[in-house]
Request: fold
Amino acid sequence: MNTSVSTEPTRARAARALAGLRGRRPGWLLACLLGGMFLGNVDIAVVNVAIPSIRERLGASGGELELIVSGYTLAYAVLLITGARIGQIRGRRWTYLIGLSVFTLSSLACGLAPDSTTLVGARVVQGVGAALMVAQVLTGIQVHFEGTARRRALGAYTGVLGVSSVVGQALGGVLVSADILGTGWRPIFLINVPIGIVLLAASYVFLPDDVISGQTKLDMRGVGLLSLGLLLLVTPLVLGQDAGWPLWTWLCLAASLPVFVLFARVERGIARRAGDPLMNVALLARKQVSLVLVSQAVARASYFAILFVLALYLQQGLGKSAVYSGLVPIAWVATFAVVGPVLGRMGARSRRLAAPAGGLLMAVCFAAVAAGAQSTGPLILLLGIGGIGYGAAFSGTLARLTDAVEAQYAPDVSGLFNTTLQVGGTLGVAVFGTVYLNLITRGGTPHDAFSTTSAILAAVSVTASALILLAGKPRTITPSHS
Reply:
């Protein structure tokens, strides 16, 4: 009896001390948020290197291997907007913790999967967990940071996004090659478990409790329509190229448009009735928001396209090793990771000009490659310049977007921006990968096909720069619900 009485104040004091830590350590708060984004993005790329080992040890078919790679990407892309809204309704902190828990447990399931079917299912669940946690990251930055602190946090966001791409490619190769205790590909997933547990503990302590909005119900009609539209759009982009673009891929792409139109009408109707839509589509009526998102989608498509086409050109066209083709693009990714933190410490004018200047730098990179600068030294140098350009374009558009929208619309911004990244990247691989391969199929040399594709990417990058100039200066206007 005495023991229970004496321990109660101690528990109360511990609870108060824990609550006091939450939100009072902005550095730790940011580290926890970016840690989840890091894990989510690493697992987009890490599996590609492990595919031969998975095929050999699990006897997976070609279709199963595609689903092991794309199942994660599909679930991740489709649920980002929904995940951001769930965070607003149920609380960003708990949604992030649940997403991280699902990601960690499903990583364990992936690492222990006895067969390919189980691995496919676990990868889809892993994508769900990643979407739930990553959707809270940009929202958390926009809500908990202001002014200079926000600019630096967004710079760190860009840096971590770039670093995670490098780590994803490099870590997969190292772990598979090491064949730890004869486990082959399994450590690429199992390594997430201890990292996830540590991140869970830190996030529980340092992520602040947030004020939950008055919205109590999730717009399930919106969830259904948006998920259907994104599935119809993203699935053929992910699978169509390897399948040879059969009829079903074009039917899915065509069907996605009316589904998106219906989604927008439903969401506007809910807003007019003073309800709680899944997404405030009125934000897209702002020129600043819509043009920034399209510009980012175009720039992202160019980035993913050059990574994909360059790998094909180096390995299939020039006969270079997989290690060589994996190391060359690091120049792009490394310089991309550096730009964000640097730009976050610069003045307002520099940040405003960063996005259009970045698009032009990308165009210079692609144009020089198209003109014939394709030997190792010049190519690495140009890719480094391209990475600086994309880093500036990425950071500049992100800063413009967060400046143009009030904090209460942070979930909409987070969902829209992250979904734009996924769809833009997938679109770049699908479109420009097909362009390059078609040029080869029609009798063109790898050099000519790579040069032509690079020239097209130069024009696309100029377009991205022009779009951001058309967007003009950020203006903060409360969107109507009409």
The chain has a mean pLDDT of 83.
